[in-house]
Structure formats: C-alpha cells, structure tokens
Protein 1
Amino acid sequence: MSGIIYYFSATGNSLQAAKVIAQKIDAEVVKITTKTSILCDKDVIGFVYPTFYWGLPALVARFTKKLKIEGNPYIFAVTTCGLSSGGALGQLNDILNKKGQQLSFGKTIRTVANNITKYRIKQKSISKLVQSQNKKANEIAEAVAKKQKNNIPKVGIISKAFYQLYLKEYPNSDKGFLVTSDCISCGTCQQVCPSGNIILKNGKPVFQHHCENCLACLHWCPKNAIEWKKTTIKKQRYHHPQISCSELKTNKE
Ligand SMILES: Cc1cc2nc3c(=O)[nH]c(=O)nc-3n(C[C@H](O)[C@H](O)[C@H](O)COP(=O)(O)O)c2cc1C
Ligand code: SF4
Ligand code: SF4
C-alpha cells in the first residue's frame, strides 16, 4: 500500500493531525502550495486542512480540482476547526465527485481557533485542546488504517452563504496587513507563506494581493510585527506546540 497526505496548515494544527495519521499508515506528508505536483498514483490519499468560513480553503479547492488521480484510491479528509466545520468536508467531496472520485471517510477535529482578526485565543484552553486534538487524530488514524467509511454531510445553505464572505474578500485581505517598526527583516513571513504572496523589499514584507487569508505570516513573525488592521494588536499569537516554524517553511532561501 502506498499513501500520501496532502496538507494545508498555517499554525500547525492541520500539519500535526496529518503527521499523526501519516505515521500510523506510513504515508508521505506533502504540503499544498501553488507548486505541489498534481500527479497522484497512490492507493490511499488524504487531505488535511483548516476550515475557513465553514468551507474549504481556496488553495485546497484549486489544488484538488487540478489533481490528476490515477485508479480508484481510498480517499479521506480531515478538517481542523475552532468550533464548526460546516461544509468543509462536503465541498471537497463535491470537487472529487466531479472527477469521478469520492471521499470515503471524513472527520472534523476541534482544536485551537487561530483567526485572531475576529477573537482572542484563551491561553488556558490551549493545552486541553491540543491534547484532545491529538487523541482524535489517533482515533482517525486507526479508522483510516482500517479503511473505514462514513457519510460525508452535504454542504448546507447557511455554510454556502457564510463561505461567500471568504470568497469575496480573501485574495485582497492582505490589504489589511500592517508591518510595524519591530520588523527585523528576518524573512520568516515570506518563507511560511504558502502562496508566495510576500516579497521582501528593502528587508520589509510587501504583500502581493493573492493572499490565502491563512494568517501564517502574522502568527509566525518572531517580533509580532505583523498586524491585521487594528484588530490583532496585543493579541497572543499561536502555533501548535509540537510544530516548528521550519516545518512550515515553503520558500526556504
Ligand atoms: C480565515 C480563517 C477562517 C476560519 N474560519 C473558521 C470557521 O469557519 N470555523 C471554525 O471553526 N474555525 C475557523 N477558523 C479556525 C481554523 O479553522 C482553525 O484554527 C484551524 O485549526 C487552523 O489550522 P492550522 O493550524 O492548520 O492553520 C478559521 C481560521 C481562519 C484563519
Ligand atoms: S517575519 Fe516579522 S520580523 Fe521577520 S521579516 Fe516578516 S515582518 Fe519582519
Ligand atoms: S500573506 Fe500571510 S495570510 Fe496571506 S497567504 Fe501568505 S502567509 Fe497566509
């Protein structure tokens, strides 16, 4: 059996889940970026990604549409979310169905919600959520190893409507980013960006308006020098404690 898990992750919740499952089924773990190979001939294919606005991150949607899947593999998906995943699994299934494929198994993992443009992360809740996330990822790994199947919920009308908000604003959402004088020109933001949306000009990040809205740059900046409008000022940044920044770097120098 050969397996591959495609993941998208900004703050490591999804990468951690992907790693736990990959270890159990001995699969390769591959980050979804604009440069990921679209040829896939594996027997087991997994997708692990955060929920964005009760839906599928646009980068994952575009990648899956392009993916050339050979044969009749067992396909599963896991979405990590802060509260509710809405249509995040159903949307992926719809895309696969159009390619003559289907999700055999899909699960949601509730974990730390990282969208600090909208709320604060409660420090106290982190260790409990991380523990329960890892427990759930292990349970999912067991199920995937046995090639279990379940029903993937259809995308509801409310999920569809909420997701439209994201589609409307995501590529240009980086117009809200501000870089403060605390920036030390380390390049981390540019290196963690999954879409090559950041270039450094005179050592400072400049956003290129094809943003995925993932917030990796904001959370991983070692100086907290990236703010989104005024909404993130003095708010705690987050990443999954078992994931390091270097694991998420795409654009290494
Ligand atoms: C733009 C954006 C939108 C989000 N929308 C939702 C949502 O609709 N429902 C939810 O429960 N969590 C939502 N979240 C929280 C993430 O899905 C959650 O924190 C996820 O585990 C992050 O995964 P990562 O660490 O792999 O990036 C959102 C986060 C971001 C950045
Ligand atoms: S990660 Fe932060 S400190 Fe480093 S270049 Fe980007 S904004 Fe500046
Ligand atoms: S600019 Fe920041 S929020 Fe936008 S895709 Fe890159 S890392 Fe994610």
Protein 2
Amino acid sequence: MEIQGIGIDIVDIERIEKMIKRYGNRFLKRIFTEREIDYAIKNKNSAEHFAGRFAAKEAVIKASREALPMKEIEILNRENGEPFVEKMENILISISHEKKYAVAVAIVRS
Ligand SMILES: CC(C)(COP(=O)(O)OP(=O)(O)OC[C@H]1O[C@@H](n2cnc3c(N)ncnc32)[C@H](O)[C@@H]1OP(=O)(O)O)[C@@H](O)C(=O)NCCC(=O)NCCS
C-alpha cells in the first residue's frame, strides 16, 4: 500500500449548530446526503455527527486534492460503527468528536 495523500480537518460544532438553526434543511440538504442526515438525526447529539461528517468531507478534499462538491462525498458507517467513504474504496477516514469540536483524517492509498 502506498500513501498518496493525507488530509485533516477540525470543525467547531457550535458553528454547525448555528447553520442548522439558521438555514435548517436548506443547509443540511446542500451538504449531506439523505443517508447521512438519517444517521445523524437518529442521535440526540446530532450536531456532533453532522460536524464529524463535515470534517471528514473536508479531510477527503484535502487528501485527494480535488475540489469535489461536499455532497458527492458520502460518509457512511459499517455495522461496527467504523466510517467509510461510499464509492471511494481507496480512501480511509477516521472521525472523532467531543462537545466542542469534531475532527477527521483521511488517507488516500493506492
Ligand atoms: C470506536 C470507539 C473507540 C469510538 O470511541 P469514542 O470515543 O466513543 O468516539 P469518538 O468521538 O472518538 O468517535 C466517534 C466516531 O468514531 C467512529 N467509529 C465508531 N465506531 C468505530 C469503529 N468500530 N472503528 C472505527 N471508527 C469508529 C465513528 O465515525 C464515530 O462518529 P460518527 O458516529 O459520527 O460516525 C468505541 O466506540 C469503541 O471502542 N468501539 C468498539 C467496541 C464497540 O463496537 N462497542 C460498541 C458499543 S458498546
């Protein structure tokens, strides 16, 4: 395996909360897919999960060096909770979030 790119991003969860409060579905649907929205809203701390996905999308853009539209990068979870990027098997991601911040890293491998 050869590493071809790496990306990292940190997101202030309150910023995402404010965007959701202000723009609601208009914001969510511009950035996230239906499956991502379903996943996040299942949880009571949904803003943390949205922020984690947002960070992961930014990390993927950095790692791949491609200005892909956010919604084209779909972050899903396996049954054990592990996140992955749908249809981008050569990209590995990891997400973490706490009350204030969400972070994610992405690695592009050959
Ligand atoms: C994976 C694990 C270490 C997450 O730790 P945590 O400190 O609670 O959570 P963090 O805030 O650091 O990270 C949360 C993110 O971890 C990721 N994650 C969850 N499960 C994961 C796993 N098995 N492997 C890799 N990443 C995982 C997810 O992306 C999650 O964010 P999301 O739900 O918004 O997508 C923890 O859940 C664990 O030990 N799981 C293994 C055992 C297990 O499956 N237990 C089930 C619950 S009892």
